[in-house]
Structures are given as structure tokens and as C-alpha cells.
């Protein structure tokens, strides 16, 4: 049974890693119920939002909630040291984390890095969330420069 499960898991991971779709002249990677695209250059959170919107997407809200997909992101995009913006913030109200699609973060979806979220040393307001290369999340200053992880739903394409 475990061997069969392992084979199925490997097949699913391969499917995640090989699905590519052309959308508006760009190669997007299939991931769950959507497609992902890393835009360049690195930018602050607000500019990252605009970069994604300019290509008909939004900062990722579904992909970061799934560990298999975050593993695919790390492998497919070769993320080993960069951090990427995802569509989660508490800009409106401190410690009320809201996805860019308006949904509140459920504790069951949270994938915070150990000790997060925090405001660094209580001195820096950290209202925006980035994805570490490990797949874990960290709250950071929205002014930091990171690569936007853009997402479109399969229902949008």
C-alpha cells in the first residue's frame, strides 16, 4: 500500500512539474486549480500587485496554501535563495491576515515559518507575506524587494 501511495505521489508531482500553458504569450506552470508565473524584476508588495494585474493575474492566493504546490514552485522555478511575494497581508488590520481575493486566512491554511508572524524586533511593521524557498511564510515590510508570484485560476483562462 505504501509503495502504491509513493508511486501515485511521484506521478502527481511529475504532473505538477510538467504542466505548461501559454497565456498571453507567457509560459505559465500548471499548479492545482491555476497557473503560476514569476514576474521580474523584484519589487515592493504594491508594485508586485500591479505587475501581476498587468498580465491578467493576481499575487498567488491558492498555491501557497498547498505544500505539494509550494514544493513544485521551488523545484520548477529553481527557487533556492530568492523570496517571493504571495497575496497575503494584514495591511488593513494588524494580525488579521487577508488574501488578495478578500478571504481571511484560516489557521488550517497557515504555513508560517517558526516564530512567525512577527514585527521584526517590534520596530518594523511587517504587513505583507513572502514565501521562503523552504515553502514556509514570513511576514515582511511591504517595502522589501521580492519577486512576485502571480497566479490565475483555471476558471479565468
From TrEMBL:
InterPro entries: C-type_lectin-like, C-type_lectin-like/link_sf, Ca-Dep_Lectins_ImmuneDev, CTDL_fold. Gene3D superfamilies: Mannose-Binding Protein A, subunit A. It comes from the Eukaryota. SMART domains: CLECT. Residues 30-151 form the C-type lectin domain. This is C-type lectin domain-containing protein.
Amino acid at each position: 500500500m505504501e509503495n502504491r501511495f509513493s508511486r501515485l505521489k511521484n506521478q502527481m508531482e511529475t504532473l505538477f512539474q510538467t504542466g505548461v500553458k501559454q497565456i498571453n504569450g507567457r509560459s505559465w506552470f500548471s499548479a492545482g486549480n491555476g497557473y503560476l508565473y514569476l514576474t521580474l524584476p523584484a519589487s515592493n508588495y504594491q508594485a508586485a500587485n500591479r505587475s501581476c494585474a498587468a498580465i491578467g493575474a493576481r499575487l498567488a492566493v491558492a498555491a501557497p496554501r498547498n505544500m505539494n504546490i509550494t514544493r513544485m514552485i521551488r523545484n520548477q522555478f529553481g527557487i533556492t535563495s530568492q523570496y517571493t511575494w504571495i497575496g497575503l497581508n494584514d495591511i488593513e488590520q494588524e494580525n488579521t491576515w487577508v488574501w488578495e481575493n478578500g478571504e481571511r486566512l484560516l489557521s488550517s491554511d497557515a504555513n508560517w515559518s517558526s516564530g512567525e508572524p512577527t514585527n521584526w524586533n517590534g520596530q518594523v511593521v511587517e504587513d505583507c507575506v513572502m514565501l521562503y524557498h523552504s515553502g514556509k511564510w514570513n511576514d515582511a515590510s511591504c517595502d522589501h524587494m521580492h519577486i512576485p508570484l502571480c497566479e490565475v485560476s483555471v476558471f479565468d483562462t
